[in-house]
Amino acid sequence: MKALLSPLNTFGRYLLLMGKVFSRPERFRMYWKQYIKEMGKLGIDSIGIVLMISFFIGAVICIQMKMNVSSPWMPRFSTGYTTREILLLEFSSSIMCLILAGKVGSNIASEIGTMRVTQQIDALEIMGVNSASFLILPKIAGLVTMIPVLVTFSMMAGFGGAYAICISGILTTEDLTYGLQHSFNAWFVWMGYIKSFFFAFIIASVSAFYGYTVEGGSVEVGKASTDSVVHCSMLILFADIFLTQILS
User: Fold this and answer.
1) 184: pLDDT confidence band, cut at 50, 70 and 90?
2) Which of 4-18, 120-134, 219-233 reaches the highest mean pLDDT?
3) Residue 8 lies in a domain
4) In the predicted model, is pLDDT for residue 127 greater than 90?
5) N or C end of the chain: which has fewer CB within 10 A?
6) Are the beta carbons of 150 and 100 closer than 8 angstroms?
7) What whole-number distance in Å separates Cα of residue 75 and Cα of residue 92?
8) Contact 93/196 with Cβ under 8 angstroms?
9) Terminal CA-to-CA distance of the chain, rounded, Å?
10) Domain that holds residue 106
11) How far is CA 113 from CA 33, 182, 218, in A?
């Protein structure tokens, strides 16, 4: 019974915290400055790792499709077609957000957790500031705003990695281009954007919750950071199944 009540208790605390987060801001200008700052810290600073990982994953997917799924009965453009579907439907939205959960999620949890254990959050509360809204809302808004940019860069870098493989000669540029364009469905791009919005909210809000509610010292902050990444990854995978069923 206790094992059942613990997740329910955590979920209830999460909902109560989100209620405080989405309350009306006291000073909009102060929130706006934080919002711009978080867009740069959580979004722009993540572009580099998104480009690098997506480029190499796009190249690897293209190689795997060409070398291991090739058959005389399959058209030559099937490699480009399969690569495009994998990048648009899953990697650039779901898998990339799993990677961001490790980078961005741990950063949010450790930052807010450190403020909690050093009593900076208590100081904000004493000054009459809604600390939950001031600290968490700009992070959620910033990441949700920047996630389409990150997904777009991921798609472009993935296709760039696929084209880079053409230099080795295992696939011609014409066959890859035809495969990428064959039976293209623009809804798959929008599906990736829609799913990424939900994933971005999960990463920012869940990581902030674990950081905001941490108790103890530096050891507990590290544990909260790890827990945030684990739970964000699990929730993203569950949400991916649910959203794919709805949007497909």
Assistant:
1) confident
2) 219-233
3) no
4) no
5) N
6) yes
7) 25
8) yes
9) 38
10) 27-247
11) 21, 49, 9
Spatial contact of 7 and 202, defined as CB atoms under 8 Å apart = no
The sign of the CA dihedral 132, 133, 139, 144 is positive
The SS3 of residue 129 is coil
Cβ contacts of residue 247 below 8 Å, gap of 6+? 191, 194, 195
Per-residue pLDDT at 2: 40
- Amino acid at the residue 42: L
Q: Which two tokens stand for residue 223?
A: 């544990």
Q: Is residue 85 in a domain? A: yes
State the Cα–Cα distance between residues 113 and 120, nearest whole angstrom. Answer: 10
Instruction: Read off the pLDDT of residues 197-239 as tens digits, 9 standing for 90 and up.
Output: 999 999 999 999 998 888 877 788 888 888 889 999 999 999 9
pLDDT digits (tens, 9 = 90+) for 55-105: 998 888 888 887 776 666 667 778 888 888 888 888 888 888 888 888 888
- Number of domains comprising the chain: 1
Query: How many of the other CB atoms lie within 10 Å of CB of 63?
Result: 18
- Residue 7 belongs to a domain: no
DSSP conformation class of 24: P
CA distances from 134 to 37, 140, 142 (A): 13, 11, 13
Q: Is residue 182 part of a domain?
A: yes
